[in-house]
Amino acid sequence: MSIVIDKNLFTLHTRGATYQMKADQWGTLLHLYYGERTDSSDKSYFVQQNDVGFSGNPYEAGQTTRRYSLDTLPQEYSCFGTGDYRITAMRVQNPDGSQAAGLRFRSGELLPGKYAIPGLPALYAQEGQGETLVLHMEDHVSGLEVELYYGVLEDLDIITRAVRIINRGTEAVTLEKAASVQLDWQWGAFDWLSLYGRHSMEQNVQRTPVRHGVQSVGSVRGISSHQYSPFLMLCEPNATENSGSCYGFSFVYSGEFLMELEKDQLEQTRLICGIHPDNFSWRLEPGDSLWLPETVMAFSAQGIGGVSRIFHRALRENLCRGVWKDKRRPILINNWEATYFDFTGDQLVSIAQAGAEMGAELFVLDDGWFGKRDEDISGLGDWVPNEEKLGCTLKELGERIQALGLDFGLWLEPEGISEDSELYRNHPDWAVEIPGRKPCLSRSQLVLDFSRSDVQDYIIGAVSKILSGAPVSYVKWDFNRAICDKFSHALPAGRQGEFAHRYVLGLYRVLEELTSRFPEVLFESCGGGGGRFDAGMLYYTPQIWGSDTTDAIERLSIQYGASLGFPISCIGSHVAAVPSHQTGRITPLNTRGSVAMFGAFGYELDPGSLSSEEKAAIRAQITFYKEHYDLIHHGDYYRLTAPDHPNCTAWEAAVPDGGTALVTAVYHRVSPNPIPVRVRVQGLRDNLWYEVSDGTGVYRASGASLRQCGLVIPAAKEEYQAWQMLLRSGGSCDED
Ligand code: DGJ
Q1: Looking at the structure, do residues 618 and 685 belong to the same domain, yes or no?
Q2: CB of 534 closer than 8 Å to CB of 546
Q3: What SS3 state is found at 387?
Q4: Which pLDDT does position 735 carry in this prediction?
């Protein structure tokens, strides 16, 4: 059993971790432990209570002791306004205007399998996997009931949490903040790792100590954002890639989020994660309920890399869905950087043809094929093919592409609306704008109000028409701005605070409907690159365009950062032309291929500009990628050096049984008189011999030496050189 219940003591076990809670005599649900797997014995002895001045006592307890305070106790789900002065999980607005709630434990319940959340993405259990614990908490005054859900996927080493709040009272209550997760650590110092960035520069890793006070990352941009990722890690200060205790938290949500940390007066650390409260309030009438999104949690004693690998597997196997989850994704050629908006149907076909000759399998027609769309200031919303520009119907174009042996894919931005569009002229109230205020434009466009069911229905209809009218087998679902001026004509004034969450629920409804109607279509999401790079989107689209930066050297850090919490198979990554359109940098073709193939792989350039040698090199790249696809995409992924290494960023994929590994190293800086770069190879078997092909020659080394002494990366002979080094096992060392 992965969940052990002993009266009011609840212990959850995964392969490597244990999590424990207990409802105490006052009904407070205490958090007792989350860390390395241990026994199910009661750890409440560890909670020391002192009389801490200015940390008050709940009335019932305060009559007998001053040592019991909600301001100092480790809890599972704390409330604002009743004596816990730290960051809290829930804040409500009661009918009398007060903002207080006090949750008390009522009961616990074990459910078979892993819970699902209606209308929201969540990890799912495979056959025979998963258990669920539900803990019921209630506020006796307002009648609010809070159900805390814990999903345990023991073999995956994953615990998930979600929350459902029900108004069982007689009057309406407004939720002002309702987090999905709270975690309290009674002791220990931590570093936290977050991912920050900006458009075209996403997923930079920041590691800082958790300090006194509140620190947070979040988004109020309507989307999870380029600026901060809804993923973070906490680790012991001395934790490394391969050692030390680390925790990871991935919020399975594509909208506004807040991940807060506070180190309190007693050196305790609290984490709260959920929908960002700044743009959120939700009115619950008597009988109403609201589910809050899921957070996926992992613990590993094997360092930062250990946590990453738990997330890679869980997201790949238990979050991504549909026929494309396990199927090899097609190698695509996209026309965006080749043509931008300036193309004809014949040019597209010639790009596709050259792509097919090099081994590409899917041609993706990007922005500009519909409505009045020769630049990015008009046309969004008018999903009618521009036959004059294409020189034929979309169906005919798709068939011409198919005749070349390629599949046909299409770019869409269904959430966007241009002021200069028929859709806006016909339905100005469908755009997100506040009456009486001029809206903030971004990329000259507005946002379609996905919180409205009529808009959702319209988009489901419009996209379905395109997908059934032409042979489309791939969709790039883009979204090119953040959301502000939040207001919906369909919501009453008292419910405008629900807009941001309703928008995300609307988006999920549309994606669920379209992916079920068109199960064979591969959906890749995109938010102007990584603007919506989160586990929520991965539930609907098994790959996400990683960044509008295709420069291989910049991609090193973008993909490195993303790999902290996401499998590389989900990171859209393309080989583009040089000089790079974003940076002007010139990198070797081999480097661009070596970086892009550690992602959902493709090309985004005009093959007409390539020499015959380059075309031959691309053919070889594609052959290599196909040959090693399983190793790259389903192997265990190890980061060997970070992009801030003085010379080289290196990473590795190893098959889980240690039979084969592929080490890639890219010189982001070459120096004269270079010091050899050595990396310790991971995931091999100590007692096997490996034949190492490092690009300069072949030699033999034992798994133990490659792990302990390391592997030498050949020196760079040119700027930005990449090496791909294959290590194949060949016999046991024990026999020698
Ligand atoms: C932003 C995307 O990230 C690009 O790849 C491209 O599709 C453009 N939008 C098209 O407008």
Answers
A1: no
A2: no
A3: helix
A4: 63
Write b or e for each residue in 128-140: b if 16 or more Cβ atoms lie within 10 A of its Cβ, otherwise e. ebbbbbbbbbbbe
Supply the pLDDT for residue 736: 60
Coil, strand or helix at 164: strand
Distances (CA, A) of 73 to 50, 51, 58, 209, 352: 10, 12, 12, 22, 63
d(CA 199, CA 546): 11
One domain for residues 365 and 257: no
**Domain count of the chain?**
3
- The tokens for 367 are 């922005």
Annotated catalytic residue within 236, 288, 614, 691:
614
**Domain range for 343:** 332-417+454-484+520-628
Q: What amino acid occupies position 584?
A: G
Across the chain, mean pLDDT equals 97
| Shared domain check, 674 and 601 | no
Question: From residue 499, how far is each of 412, 483, 491, 721 by CA, in Å?
Answer: 23, 11, 8, 49
Q: Indicate whether residue 527 lines ligand 1 (CB < 6 A).
A: no
What's the one-letter identity of residue 323? V
Kindly compute the dihedral angle of the four CA atoms of residues 523, 528, 530, 532, in this order, to the nearest 10 degrees: -70
Q: Which residues contact residue 682 at a Cβ distance below 8 angstroms, ignoring those fewer than 6 apart?
A: 242, 305, 636, 638, 640, 652, 654, 707
Pocket flag, ligand 1, residue 533 (CB < 6 Å): no
Inter-residue contact 394 to 348 (CB < 8 Å):
no
Task: Please give the helix or strand (H or E) that residue 690 lies within, else none.
Answer: strand 688-693
Which residue type occupies 575? V
Residue of the nearest CA to atom 10 in ligand 1? 367
Together in a domain, 131 and 192: yes
- pLDDT, residue 25, reads 96
136 and 39, same domain (yes or no): yes
Q: What is the pLDDT of residue 429?
A: 98
Atom of ligand 1 nearest to the CA of 411: 7
Q: Residue 420 to residues 79, 424, 428, 436: CA-CA distances in angstroms?
A: 47, 7, 11, 19
For residue 331, give the nearest of 353, 356, 354, 312 by alpha carbon.
356
CA dihedral sign of residues 175, 177, 182, 185: negative
333 in helix, strand or coil?
strand
Residue pair 683/636 in contact by the 8 Å Cβ criterion = yes
Does the beta carbon of 157 lie inside 6 Å of ligand 1? no
Task: Give DSSP secondary structure letters for 479-523.
Answer: --S---S---TTS-GGGGGGHHHHHHHHHHHHHHHHHHHSTTSEE
DSSP annotation of 203: E
Look at residues 275, 290, 318 and tell me which one is the last residue of a structural domain.
Answer: 318
Whether 234 and 178 map to the same domain: the answer is: yes
Residue closest via CA to ligand 1's atom 9 equals 528
Terminal-to-terminal C-alpha distance of the chain:
44
Distance of CA 347 to the CA centre of its chain: 35
For residue 583, which of 556, 617, 610 has the smallest C-alpha distance? Answer: 556
Q: Is 684 in the pocket of ligand 1 (CB under 6 A)?
A: no
How far apart, in whole angstroms, are the C-alpha atoms of residue 426 and residue 560? 45
- Segments of the chain scoring below 50 in pLDDT: none
pTM, to two decimals: 0.98
From atom 5 of ligand 1, which residue's Cα is the shortest distance away? 548
Mutate to test the pocket of ligand 1, among 545, 575, 582 (most ligand atoms within 8 A of CB): 545
